[in-house]
Give the backbone structure.
Amino acid sequence: MDDLKEYEGFTVKLALVDALPVIFFSLSLILIATALSGSGLTFWVVLIGAILIALSGLCKVLWKLLLGLKVGDVKILNKIFVPFMAGGFMITLIGVLIGTFTKVIRWGAVIHAMVSLPEILFFVLGFCGLFVMGYVKSTNKREEFNKDAKKNWIAQFVNAFAQCMIFLGILFATHG
């Protein structure tokens, strides 16, 4: 249990708050996948990338949950976060490029939907939240940040807010 001393402030509550951005991102994924359904390769590539991103978040939540439950530091769950996240975004980007080149994604319609009201407000707030979270993380050393419960609480509330706003923007854009 000595490996838990450096994570004393990591609680089950923190893990549950950490789950919120994963849930909002996954809901956004469902909306985007629904919008792309029937588009063949674009749909599948975007879906695979997004699932990998969601899995990375789920692994991080599970890691924090196991810390909070005092089970132990299952390091692999924390370590695969960045490679899964980066790989998922790369695959998703490839899917978006495929959709762009095959004209499955009609960017004019996407942009029009994003800059309409109230969608643009949600997207601006969401991206501001992501910027703030990135700033908070970039001003701290990674190892220190990963072990500081207070900084994790701040980052997860900001991330939950950002992902919620982006989800609402996508929801209104696809169903408005």
